[in-house]
């Protein structure tokens, strides 16, 4: 298993630069936020004196952009977690799975190596996002450090679940089939969302905005207690995907495909 992990890391060496650049970009965004947030934390009268040409709406809009940039800096490192599954495609192109069938390796070791590489990347991204949050939290007053860590943890749980499903699917299908399934899923999800919004707008009209705000308030309350249910559910999903992947590999022999 150790050899498979080292092989995966060696295959991903060309992706390491992109990985590092992503972290540098997130860090740069965090530094820019730190340098520019002073304006967002001041009132217009403190900036302009008696001659106020900056409206409260302008400052509010700035704070919204500042908040978006803050979460971008925190969440951007998490996206590199999906670099870990690039090894599926690399092995497929190199026909490594034919070689794998001749090796004395158990299916559980194959799956454990894949999951270890993928979640190792995701964990590195999560740690990076926490470090960036620690960097910018002293100067950014739009969100507290706790809120930043909360957002990063929730998104990490979501990415971890998606990563487990992706690994399981890649053990089952080849890379091209997986891409078609993902594209079809998101297009279908987008179409269902658009149709749902149009249908709700026709039925409820002006009440739709109030309904959406009420819905998001309930979602916010639900995720405020994420430690009690989200993390256990995420861990359960990872275990389920892992066990399913082992069964898939067993059915196909020692090779993945």
Count of runs of 4 or more consecutive helical residues: 11
Order of helices and strands: HHHHHHHHHHH
Separation of termini? Answer: 18 Å
Radius of gyration: 23 Å
Q: Report the portion of residues in β strands.
A: under 5%
For the residues shown, what is the average pLDDT? Answer: 74
Task: List key phrases describing it.
257 residues, mainly alpha, 81% helix
Q: Could you walk me through the main structural features you see in this protein, from its secondary elements to its overall organization?
A:
It is a single chain. With about 260 residues, the protein is an all-alpha fold. It has one domain (about 1-170, about 225-250). It is about 80% helix and about 0% strand. It contains 11 helices and no strands. It has helices at about 1-10, 15-40, 45-50, 55-75, 85-95, 95-100, 105-135, 145-170, 175-205, 205-225, 225-250. Helix 4 crosses helix 8 and helix 8 (about 145-170) runs parallel beside helix 11 (about 225-250). It is globular, with a radius of gyration of 23 Å. The model is unreliable at about 40-50 (pLDDT under 50).
């Amino acid at each position: 298993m150790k050899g498979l992990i080292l092989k995966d890391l060696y295959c991903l060496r060309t992706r390491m630069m992109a990985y590092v650049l992503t972290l540098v970009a997130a860090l740069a965004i965090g530094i820019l936020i730190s340098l520019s947030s002073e304006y967002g934390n001041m009132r217009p009268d403190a900036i302009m004196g008696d001659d106020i040409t900056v409206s409260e709406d302008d400052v509010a809009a700035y704070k919204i952009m500042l908040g978006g940039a803050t979460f971008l800096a925190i969440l951007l490192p998490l996206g590199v977690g999906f670099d870990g599954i690039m090894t599926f495609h690399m092995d497929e192109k190199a026909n490594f799975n034919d070689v794998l069938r001749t090796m004395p390796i158990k299916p559980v070791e194959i799956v454990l190596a894949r999951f270890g590489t993928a979640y190792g990347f995701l964990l590195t991204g999560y740690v990076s996002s926490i470090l960036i949050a620690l960097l910018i939290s002293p100067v950014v007053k739009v969100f507290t450090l706790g809120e930043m860590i909360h957002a990063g943890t929730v998104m990490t749980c979501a990415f971890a679940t998606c990563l487990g499903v992706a690994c399981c699917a890649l053990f089952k299908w080849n890379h091209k089939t997986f891409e078609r399934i993902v594209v079809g899923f998101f297009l279908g999800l987008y179409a269902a969302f658009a149709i749902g919004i149009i249908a709700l707008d026709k039925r409820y009209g002006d009440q739709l905005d109030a309904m959406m705000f009420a819905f998001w308030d309930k979602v916010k309350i639900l995720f405020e207690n994420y430690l009690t249910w989200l993390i256990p559910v995420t861990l359960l999903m990872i275990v389920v995907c892992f066990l399913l992947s082992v069964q898939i590999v067993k059915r196909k022999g020692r090779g993945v495909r």
